[in-house]
Specification:
By secondary structure, the chain is mostly helical. The protein has 14 helices and no strands.
């Protein structure tokens, strides 16, 4: 197996790129309070597209050139991506983050059964389902203070009906599941390689993201102009904000490639599971470096989620072992010390 076909290498690359992307997006959207995610994503897509074309010109990579036939087949994926982002932003606007996280982790179960139902994926074994339960439980434990107090709505959004928050959350779960499932199916259907996926996904996302920014972020344009240009009370931060957006746009190239690679060599369920577990090092770094409170609930949540990830890896390795036995291969003895290593190599790459 080459490195480009190794699920473990793909998962590690995706994790590293995702952490890098998350850190810089946090700097842009949180540190500078730049509330225009669609515009930031459009800048990232433009940068990624330019980088693919430039690398192609220098024969560093190869990718399928633009054609209307493939563009029409891939365009629904770009629309699904924007819908997933928009519904997630709307749900977060009204719903408390701990409750939002619980529902996002529940979406992994929806993806797992959707993969079985629509794409004849690997069955959800009791051990795999138990790992999902642990992941959901970890988010419940982490946010128990808010959840137990009934704090479903975000502070300042209490005047909005709870039904509105759940409506957007439900739509986000559906769009997330649809995007994750359809992405892998479309890659196989169109026959895209990794850089083909990166090029078409980002190129076709640009007009959708720019239109979405104009439609939904007009207030953000006016606010940013007042803050950074005229009268420019925060004009000193403008250059640093531009640098942060530029660096995040460059890192978008890495996450685009790693995501395509990871989805192709694993499964939609594993990809989603890795995405959820990838929040663990981010949470830990927040406690260690950014002053996030290290409460009993937050630390316990990290431990429970880590246990869920270990259980998922073990369950997938056990499932892979059973499948290899059915295919006529001699199964590895349960006592073989290499079982864990091989199993993890095969399971960690499915998202």
């Amino acid at each position: 197996m080459t490195k480009t076909e190794s699920p473990v290498v793909a998962i590690l690359a995706y994790c590293a790129a995702s952490i890098l992307m998350t850190v810089f997006n946090k700097v842009v959207l949180s540190t500078y309070n730049f509330n225009m995610p669609f515009l930031v994503l459009a800048a990232q897509s433009i940068c990624t597209t330019v980088m693919v074309v430039a690398f192609g010109k220098f024969n560093l990579i190869t990718y399928r050139k633009y054609n209307s036939y493939d563009a029409k087949r891939w365009f629904p994926i770009s629309v699904a991506l924007v819908l997933m982002i928009y519904t997630g932003a709307k749900a977060l606007k009204y719903m408390a983050i701990p409750v939002f996280t619980v529902f996002k982790n529940l979406t992994i179960i929806l993806i797992a059964y959707g993969e079985v139902l629509f794409f004849k994926g690997s069955p959800v074994t009791p051990l795999i389902f138990a790992s999902f339960v642990l992941l959901v439980l970890s988010s419940v434990v982490s946010g128990w203070a808010d959840i137990s107090a009934g704090a479903v709505m975000k502070k300042g959004s209490e005047e909005v009906s709870m039904g509105v928050a759940y409506f957007w959350m439900f739509l986000n779960c559906l769009t997330t599941a649809f995007f994750s499932l359809s992405l892998r199916a479309k890659i196989k259907d169109v026959g895209f390689k990794d850089f083909d996926t990166v090029f078409f996904n980002n190129l076709l996302s640009i007009p959708v993201l720019l239109v979405s920014s104009l439609l939904f972020e007009t207030g953000g344009f006016a606010e940013s102009y007042v803050r950074f240009v005229n009268p420019g009370e925060e004009s000193d931060s403008l250059s640093f904000l531009i640098i942060a957006i530029a660096v995040s746009s460059v890192s978008a190239f890495a996450i685009s490639y790693a995501s395509s690679w990871c989805v192709r060599v694993t499964s939609s369920t594993t990809f989603s599971m890795v995405g959820a577990l990838n929040k663990l090092p981010i949470s830990v770094s927040g406690m260690v470096f950014f002053g996030d409170p290290a409460t009993f609930g937050s630390v316990t949540g990290v431990v429970v989620a880590f246990a869920g990830g270990i259980l998922y890896s073990y369950a997938k390795s056990k499932q892979a072992l059973a499948n290899s036995g059915k295919a006529g291969m001699l199964p590895v003895p349960v006592t073989d010390p290499s079982l864990n290593k091989n199993g993890l190599d095969k399971d960690a790459n499915q998202l």
